[in-house]
Amino acid sequence: MVRRKVGNPLAFAVLGSLAERSMHPYEISTMLKSRGKDGSIKLNYGSLYSVVTALEKAGFIEAVETVRDGNRPERTVYAITATGREEFDSWLAELLGEPEKDFSQLEAGLAYLPAFAPDRVADLLEQRAGVLEQEAAGLEGMHAMMRSKKFPEIFWIESEFRVELLRTEIAFVRRLAERIRTDDLEGTEFWRRTHELVAELGIHPGELLKDPVKYFGVDFPWLREVLPDAQ
What we know:
By secondary structure, this protein is mainly alpha-helical. The protein has helices at 9-20, 25-34, 45-58, 82-97, 105-111, 118-148, 157-181, 188-201, 205-210, 212-216, 223-226; strands at residues 61-67, 75-80. It has a two-stranded antiparallel ribbon with strand order 1-2. A hairpin with a 7-residue loop joins strand 1 (61-67) and strand 2 (75-80). Helix 1 (9-20) crosses helix 4 and helix 6 packs antiparallel against helix 7. The longest helix is centred in the middle third of the chain and has 31 residues, at 118-148. The two termini are 44 Å apart. The mean pLDDT is 92.
């Protein structure tokens, strides 16, 4: 991936907006919101001005005029430069054609899933699925409205992508919650028993793993792979 002078995704959106026509920052913000782009790119009005300043300093945009609307403060109108257009084209090609690892919050949580007891994890996953279901349903309702108005899908395809991700995640977490509750997920019985012993004996989980035969009545060869000090 290219290391960019201004790497904030909001900078990409500003360049894309100005590639369409010259605008002042408030107008850019209004357009992004009206088109629903703030659902794909985090939009903060205060950050927008910092991004605009950084883009101008990098030579990607330039001030072309100052306008005043009634008694409102003067606003600076910006235009994209030839260098800025090259930057936008290169950035768009990268985003569409070069996969990059996304470090999701769910993935981070799953990496430490055994820290909670199985039933609590299952409850939290089902809670998550419920919240995601509401978001997906809301977006699907908006898509139905867009289609009824014959609004071209190319202008909201990123929202379709979001729904696909949501539906995939909902199916995964619900299936995972069920597998945990029924001990179908490999290792769940060990996981469940570990939390029971910690509650009964009042000891740290690490102590149980040091001597699995003593506490579980059986050895776990795989422990030596994850805990080199395990006997």
